Fold this protein.
Amino acid sequence: MTQSHSTVEAGWGSGPGGNYEDLASQFRPVFARIREGAVTRELNRTLPHEPIAWLKDARFGALRVPAEEGGFGATLPQLFALLAELSQADSNVTQALRAHFGFAEDIVNSRSQDRRDRWLPRLAKGEIAGSAWTEIGEAKQAAFSTIVKRRADKAHVTGAKYYTTGSLFADWIDIGASGEDGTSLSAVVSRHAPGVNVIDDWDGFGQILTASGTTTFTDAPVDAQDVIIDDERFKYSAAFYQLVHLTTLAGIGRAVTDDVAQAVKARRRSYSNAPSPHPAEDAQVLQIVGRIRGAAYSAGAIVLKSAEALQRAFDAHFQSDAAAEEKANAIAELEVAQAQTVVSNLILDATTLLFDALGASATQRTSAFDRYWRNARTLSSHNPRIYKDRIVGDFAVNGTPPPYQWRIGQV
């Protein structure tokens, strides 16, 4: 099935919400165009400036902006369903936009009308944000070395960040920093402001087109209105960002399903010890293809179920019931933690089974089938999954709520 078909026709299940097909139909031609060039970009290491520009033109980044504010008013399950479809086209593009959707989620959660008035029109136009939070080297867990200095109505930021995914393609960069008094802050700086330098030095073996490398800030100007205390950010953010990864994995699973099915159907050579002279009729090969598709389907279903928990957390935020909101946030984090090892295992297995269905010829570099495992393995290394089963087990046995935020660095 091509991406112009509905998710029902493609066998992935119905989309969330009665208007999902109408919403998705606006972007599927762009997704199809993105997928057409995915292998060429991978082989030539061509960064996805064009695909992201196409999505900006379509205002894809305005999905979560309320309709009355000029956006599409998508629910969280609808957002994640669309991100799965985009990831099926090219998971690099989804990863490059992950920070943007997290920033947009923070804005639509904001109770500050001034902040909403400032940012919702920009998001509605299609402007996008990148991210600059992680520090490496001698970085500490408890504080950032990146500093925001405020003087009256002006502010400047200085520091260096890594894993600044998507910032090279963005209009704005969302930064984690410390104030001069040690307060944990976030600030937003123009990607093109003086003193901002985004470097494409990402050297990971997967997600190679996301420009997830270094960004430095040298006395870069920041509007003082765009400096906020970190505690004011939306509370289910850790679950949100992790679910983007799981959604991207689900999309990779769908892409693997498409490619392996087409390759098996087109294959003419078979082994002398195969049960059929035609691969498309080989029961064992068909079984492998079925396992891959089942893994992709299951991953997508789990992702959408987890997205419902995030939607409940979002809804609880506006009900003026702090206890109910806290509970909804904890359950959202728990559901995504429960999903993490399962989804990552499903897709890592599927991206390996691909080669069992096609044999050694599938390892040819020109096919770029290896990108699926490399990308899945890279995504599965974020927010280490080895801790998730313990966290979930601690909740099940002892009622211990999962931690919301985490940082990496020296203690």
Observations:
- The chain has a mean pLDDT of 92.
